[in-house]
């Protein structure tokens, strides 16, 4: 399992709800959560072999900034 961490522009629970629909449809994602209290509006994703660019691209297409953070 891989843990991917992203800085996003998802700033509210309503935004997170919109993104959850996309993330739930990705079969390689095992678990995800948002930390909207963090200044970077962190998205953490646990996946099996999913490229970070796939998640970044999906959020970008939906109108949100999303970039992978090193850890």
Whole-number total of structural domains: 1
Q: Number of DSSP strands?
A: 4
**% residues in beta strands:** 25-35%
The assigned CATH architecture is 2-Layer Sandwich
The Rg value, from CA coordinates, equals 11 Å
SSE ordering: EHEEHE
Number of helices: 2
Using the coordinates shown, work out and report the CATH topology. Answer: Alpha-Beta Plaits
- C-alpha geometry: globular
Please bin the fraction of helical residues: 25-40%
Provide the CATH top-level class: Alpha Beta
Structural class from helices and strands?
alpha+beta
Largest sheet: 4 strands, antiparallel
Strand order of the largest sheet: 2-3-1-4
Outline the low-pLDDT stretches.
Answer: none
Mean pLDDT: 94
Distance between the terminal alpha carbons, to the nearest Å?
Answer: 15 Å
Organism: Mucilaginibacter conchicola
Protein name: Copper chaperone
Brief summary:
This protein has helices at 13-25, 52-61, and strands at 2-8, 29-35, 42-47, 66-68. By secondary structure, the chain is of the alpha+beta class.
Description:
The protein has 71 residues and is of the alpha+beta class. It has a single domain, classed as Alpha-Beta Plaits, CATH 3.30.70.100. It contains two helices and four strands, in the order E-H-E-E-H-E. It has helices at 13-25, 52-61, and strands spanning 2-8, 29-35, 42-47, 66-68. Strands 2-3-1-4 form a four-stranded antiparallel β-sheet, with helices on one face. The longest helix is centred in the N-terminal third of the chain and has 13 residues, at 13-25. The chain starts with a strand and ends with a strand. The mean pLDDT is 94.
């Amino acid at each position: 399992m891989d843990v991917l961490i992203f800085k996003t522009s998802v700033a509210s629970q309503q935004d997170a709800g919109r993104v959850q629909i996309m993330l739930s449809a990705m079969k390689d994602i095992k678990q995800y959560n948002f930390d909207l209290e963090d200044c970077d509006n962190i998205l953490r994703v646990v996946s099996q072999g999913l490229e970070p660019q796939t998640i970044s691209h999906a959020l970008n297409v939906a109108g949100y900034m999303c970039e992978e953070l090193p850890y």
